[in-house]
Amino acid sequence: MAEDPRIERSRRVVRDAVLDELADSGYGDLTIEGVARRAGVGKSTVYRHWPDKAALVIDALEHAHHDLVPDLESGTARDRVVRLVGHVAEVATDARFSRCIAALVDAAERDVRLREFHHQYSSDRRSELAAVIRSGVDDGDFDRATDVDAAVVAILGVVFYRRFMTAQPVTAADAAPIVDAVMPTPLT
Amino acid sequence: MAEDPRIERSRRVVRDAVLDELADSGYGDLTIEGVARRAGVGKSTVYRHWPDKAALVIDALEHAHHDLVPDLESGTARDRVVRLVGHVAEVATDARFSRCIAALVDAAERDVRLREFHHQYSSDRRSELAAVIRSGVDDGDFDRATDVDAAVVAILGVVFYRRFMTAQPVTAADAAPIVDAVMPTPLT
DNA sequence: TCAGAGCGATACGCCACCGTATCACAGTGG
DNA sequence: CCACTGTGATACGGTGGCGTATCGCTCTGA
Hints:
The structure is a homodimer. By secondary structure, chain A is mainly α. Chain A contains nine helices and no strands. Chain A starts with a helix and ends in a 6-residue tail after the last helix. The A-B interface holds A 24-30, 98-99, 102-103, 105-107, 109-110, 118-119, 122-123, 126, 150, 153-154, 156-162, 164-167, 181 and B 24-30, 98-99, 102-103, 105-107, 109-110, 118-119, 122-123, 126, 150, 153-154, 156-162, 164-167, 181-182. Chain A binds a DNA duplex through residues 2, 4-7, 10, 31-34, 36, 40-45, 47-48.
C-alpha cells in the first residue's frame, strides 16, 4: 500500500530544482521547463504533480527545512536565544535559501497565495523565537517587562535588514551582541 | 541649445511607466514592450534612450524621489528624527513605491548593477537618518553613548521587517514609539 | 510473472517578447 | 520657412515558454 517510490523520488528532485531555480532566476523568471530541465526530469512529470507555478513553489518552500536545527534544549534561556538567532543569521546568509527568501518576499507582493504562505511561514518563525525569549523572561534571564513581540521584531529586523539592504549581513557571531542590545541583562 | 522637449517628455513618461510595471510585475516579468505599451510610447523610443532593462530600471528608480519631503528644519532633534522615520514608514507603505523596493531587493540578488545601485541608494538613506540622529545626540536629546549606526539599522530594520515580512506594516503614527524604544530619553 | 503505473522524450500550436530596421509624420529651433 | 530630429507604427526572424497529448520503456508490487 506504500506509494510508488518513483513518485516520491520525482517530487524530491523537482522540489530541489525549484529552490535552485528560484535562487538563480527569481520567481518571475522561474519556468516549469527550466525546473524540469534542472531536475533532469520530463516536463510532464512536473505537470503531473503540481497544477501550476505558484503551487510548485509553495510546495518546494514548505519542504525546505534546514536539517541543521539549533540546540534549543541545553544552556540558559539566553544561550538558547543566541543560538536560535545565530541559526537565523546562518539561514539568512545561506546563498541559496536567502535568495529564495528574497524571491518569496517579492512574489508575495503580487500573488495572494504566495503572500498567505509567506505571512504564515514567517509568523511561525517569529513564534518560535518568541517562545524561547518568553522562557528567558520566566527564567529571569531577561527583564520581566520585556515586550517579547517587539523584541522578536527588533532582532529579526536587524538580521534581515542587514542581509537584504546592506553589504554587511549579520553572522552567527553577531547574534550575542544583538540579543544583548535588544534585551540587556537585568541588574538582578 | 536647450534639449528638444520631446526627449525629456519621453523619458519622463517612460520612467513613470517603469515604476508602474515594476510594482505590478516585478523585475523578472518586466518587459520593454510592456513598459512602452504602458507609457503609450513606441518600443523604439525606449531602445533609443536606454540600452537595456537594467539601465532602464536603475534610471527610473534614481529619478523616483517623493516630492513630499519631511520637514527636517523645525522642532527638536527628536522631532526631526520622528518625522523622518514617519516619512520612511509612509514610503514603505506606498503601494507603488514599496513594491518597487521589493522588486529591487530581489533583483539585486541576481544582477550586479542593480545590487550596486541598491546598496548605494539605501546607504545614502541611512546616512540621512544617521545625520539627524547624530544632531540629536549633540543636542542631548539622545544618550551621549548612542551607537548611531546601530540605532539606524534598528529603526529601519523594524520598519522594513514589518512591511515585508508581516501583515502589520509600521504607520507614521508608530514612528515616535519606535524611536523611543530604540533611543530612550536620557534621564538628564 | 505480469498488469499497471510512473516515467522521459518528443512534438504540437500558440503566443509574447527580443532587438533591429524602416517609414512617414510632426514638433522644434534656427 | 525649412532642415533636422525625435517620434509611433509596423514588420522582421528568432527564441523560448506555455500546457497538452502521445509514445514506448521500465520499475513496482501483488
